[in-house]
Amino acid sequence: MKMRDDYTCPLELVHDMIKGKWKPIILWRLRLGATSLSKLEQDIEGITQKMLLEHLKELIEYGFVDKESHSGYPLHVEYFLTEQMGKQILEALRIMQHIGIEYLKNNGREQELISKNVVPD
User: Fold this and answer.
1) Can you tell me the distance from the alpha carbon of 94 to that of 97, in angstroms, rounded to the nearest whole number?
2) For 22, which of 8, 45, 60, 96 is 20 to 30 Å away at the CA?
């Protein structure tokens, strides 16, 4: 993704780096630890492999995610959050997750959270 040269503020820059339906979800899933492409695709309901690969590529370019290839057959690649930017963005995502949980609870949709194992019964 081509980065713009001019920004109103740094928040606008970060927003551009992680915007879209899937990037925050990919980052949130990677908080659980390094994982393979197939496991990410399995864990993120509705994402296609093509879209997952595109977003992982961008997240790697921006420094949020990195990957490690393990030799052997078949080739095994694991994706993980970087120490600096990847783990740092989790603070913002945790706040966003909390806001989403509270919104659903306050609007009578707590059962959705329970069915997705986001909050306990």
Assistant:
1) 5
2) 8
